[in-house]
Amino acid sequence: MRFGVVTAFGPRAEGPAVRTLLETTEGLGYDSVWVTEHLVVPEHYESPYPYAVSGDMPIGAGADLPEPLTWLAFAAACTSTLLLGTSCVIVPERNALHLAKQAATLDLLSGGRLRLGVGLGWCREEAEAVGAEWADRAPRAEAAIDAMRRLWTGEPVAYRGPGVNFPPVVCRPTPASAAGIPIVVCGPSVRAAARAGRIGDGYFTNHRDPDRLRTLLGILRRSAGAADRDPDRIEVTVGASPSPRTVERLAGLGVHRMVWPVPTRDPARIERQLTRAARSVM
């Protein structure tokens, strides 16, 4: 079992505090840092937040939510071993060519440490605010993933698919590895788990209920098998509260990594929180 943190959200945090968070995280032996995305947070929304019974984002619209790839570029410069993950980039709200270029640049400069977590988004009002269609977001996201993987070869590529159409182009630099950047499919739904099995290099979910998680991982494995893929090669990351009992339960389900939220705060509080979790769990 490996361990990481989900961060970059919460109270405003400038460079020195973020550097402390990153250096402490790496120094204590965490393997990764993950950053989520909302381009904007609507002041009023009816879409239910999928990870809370209330249906509301617990951090509220007033919290800072930095652009994830920019934040992770700063993280790459502050660290040398931490994997840099998005949990997730909302692909249907992005231009596939632009995202491919950003991700490849960050991956190359960080020495191949990027894990590109991708999702569809849960907030219709956010999609509408940025001018993105909602109903067809799944096929557009899958087309974008396919197109990016082709672009990362550095060879001339033309593409025609849902929401992604371009003539022969070359997109360089390429990622650090010829295999491209690992794509981690994020989401709590049955469709997300199936998509991870079918096209993902990894799967990320915050579902903590053991029965629900067992169901999702079963769907992932069956979907991978139907696509002639080895399910054991799909890395599973789960967000949960740090405790030895939780680690044992998740390990028994075949989870590879557990992550927990660490809001950006004052440096002293960050160090205490990370150190306490490392000692009690890792």
Polypeptide structure, described:
This protein has helices at residues 15-27, 68-78, 96-109, 124-129, 137-151, 190-199, 210-226, 244-252, 267-281, and strands at 2-7, 32-35, 83-86, 89-90, 114-119, 157-161, 164-169, 183-186, 202-205, 235-239, 257-261. Strand 1, helix 1 (15-27) and strand 2 (32-35) form a beta-alpha-beta unit. The protein has a single domain (2-175, 255-281), classed as Luciferase-like domain (TIM Barrel). Helix 3 (96-109) crosses helix 5. It has 282 residues and is α/β, with parallel strands linked by helices.
**CATH-derived topology:** TIM Barrel
- Strand composition percent: 15-25%
Q: What is the rounded Rg?
A: 18 Å
Please mark out the parts with pLDDT under 50 across 5 or more consecutive residues, or reply none: none
Anisotropy-based shape: globular
